[in-house]
Write a structure and sequence with these properties.
About 35% of the residues lie in helices and about 25% in strands. The protein is of the alpha+beta class. The chain starts with a helix and ends in a 5-residue tail after the last helix. Residues about 115-120 have low confidence and may be disordered. The chain binds L-MYO-inositol-1-phosphate.
């Protein structure tokens, strides 16, 4: 197991890379962005900036740590030999980025003890996340955490809202790109919306989890996420006091992620079960 000091070093490297990648993407955004390709559906888009930003991140990681593995949204898994794997979403909130809406971020996490290969499967973090950074270049905010080291944003310690009853909770969520999944997600929303304060759909899982950590929302849930969407934000939310889990209270994965302070987590999980999810 990596020491706290080593995790701090990994966090510093992740922070430096995320800031450089965020500046690169923001500059490219200012020059105009277009769709380079689509993935799972015609609305699941990737821009050349997504690809170029991930290429920059990969090169900076391997320049500093050539033996590490990399799992990224836009490129093939790079198998390492060090036991450490970097989990990268170069631009989380791609549709926001495409439309020049401010809610997008560079998300970088480092995990230990897993395998950066297909066996882990989309959505599951294979190993223990040691450090995570979410950089929102549009707002200038940098959210970060190391395992056991707490969560911070631009020097401020982050803490989730506590003792919020379900009916007063502001709940963030999101929707996938496939029509059938969106229909199911809308059905769940019918069961959730009347029972909470309100819903927020910001368009970036990484920033939703950071908003939870910062007390800007009280809870977050979503289906259909990949590991790179939530790896860094999940650690930041946990280190800020959130309980983060997946199906039946197990590890979060592409089937489900639910996050909130203890107490509200249990209330929301029960509401989601009544709405048909296996929380
Ligand atoms: C996004 C997620 C978000 C989800 C969006 C999209 P992407 O990731 O972060 O939570 O609701 O539909 O999947 O595609 O921008 O990397």
């Amino acid at each position: 197991m990596t020491s706290a000091a080593a995790s701090a070093d990994l966090l510093e490297l992740a922070r430096d890379i995320a800031v450089r990648a965020g500046a690169f993407a923001l500059e490219a955004r200012r020059h105009g962005v277009s769709v380079a390709a689509t993935k799972s559906t015609p609305t699941d888009v990737v821009t050349a900036v997504d690809r170029d930003t991930e290429e920059l991140i990969r090169s900076l990681i391997l320049e500093a740590r050539p033996d590490d593995g990399i799992v990224g949204e836009e490129g093939a898994a790079h198998i390492g030999t060090s036991g450490l794997d970097w989990i990268v979403d170069p631009i989380d909130g791609t549709v926001n980025f495409l439309y020049d809406l401010p809610s997008w971020a560079v998300s970088i996490a480092v995990a230990e003890g897993g395998g950066a290969d297909a066996a882990a499967g989309p959505g599951a973090i294979d190993g223990v996340t040691l450090a995570g950074v979410v950089c929102n270049p549009g707002s200038g905010e940098l959210f970060e955490a190391s395992l056991g080291g707490g969560a911070r944003s631009t020097g401020r310690t982050l803490a989730v809202n506590r003792d919020v009853p379900l009916h007063q909770a502001l709940v963030a969520t999101g929707f996938g790109y496939a029509a059938e999944l969106r229909r199911l997600q809308a059905e769940v929303l019918l069961g959730v919306l009347p029972s909470v304060r309100d819903i927020r759909r910001n368009g970036s899982a990484a920033l939703d989890l950071c908003a939870l950590a910062a007390g800007r929302v009280d809870a977050y849930y979503e289906r259909g996420l990949n590991a790179w969407d939530h790896a860094a934000g999940g650690l930041i939310a946990r280190e800020a006091g959130a309980h983060v889990a997946g199906p039946h209270g197990g590890p979060e994965n592409s089937e489900l992620l639910v996050a909130a302070a203890p107490g509200l987590y249990e209330e929301l999980a029960e509401l989601l079960r009544r709405a048909g999810l296996e929380a």
